[in-house]
Hints:
Elements: H1 2-26, E1 32-35, E2 47-54, E3 60-66, E4 88-93, E5 98-106, E6 125-129, E7 132-140, E8 146-153, E9 161-162, E10 176-179, E11 185-189, E12 193-196, E13 209-210, E14 220-227, E15 230-236, E16 245-250, E17 257-262
Antiparallel strand pairs: 1-5, 2-3, 3-4, 4-5, 6-7, 7-8, 8-9, 10-11, 11-12, 12-13, 14-15, 15-16, 16-17
Amino acid sequence: MIVRVKMFVVNLVVVLLMISCKLEQSKITYPYMFKAETNPFVKHIRTADPDAHVWKDGKLWVYTSQDHVPDSTLITAPWHVYNKMDGYHVFSTENMIDWTDHGEILHSKNVEWGLKEGGFMWAPGGAYKNGIYYLYFPHMDKENKFRTGVATSKFPQGPFVAEPNFIEGTSGIDPMCFIDDDGQAYLYFGRMMVAKLSDDMLTLAEKPKRINAGNEKIMEGAFMHKRNGKYYYSYTNHKEEINHGFYSIGDNPYGPFEYKGPVNP
């Protein structure tokens, strides 16, 4: 009986904390300004999948997904529990201390081609070209298949307006747009896929190609950057017990890439 009472008290405390947290979040008005002197720098909402850029205004802009999964399920949750991820936010700063949360910039309810139940708004990727800001995002279509959508805005803080259809030829999760020195944009998405984007940044200019990264242990989170003429293709594997972040180096955006191992062993 004592054990049952204790468990009841513990569960009641957890529920009250969750309700309190939701009530606190509901009181926030945007844009919301806060100071970040420790990690994590965002504490007023639960965020994931940061995609960081320094745009032409010199500020650092961080685009994130938002996690609504209850704390009690996070550790043992099967992947489908994360259908509760929804509502992208963007944060900006000039000094890494003073931050602004510009609020929700896109939600599944604004995506015509997506599941009517919503959710499944996972890791986004931002880009800027020709005076327009682009937000590439994964979402499930009405046939329960992951596709890449794209939304646009004239301002880095949005709001972003989603295109009426997903990008044909895409699949999988975690899209990322890389723009090379010559202005050509590439879309990386899913399990080791890449394709040039058309000049409008809204469609693929070619059939997607599979990347040879010199390593098949790739699950998600593909990212591309360029340094001293070399292309760095990085990615994660959450099923790897010791090293989760890996990278490979190549001479062009398509690869092939030479596997270099974990980023931080």
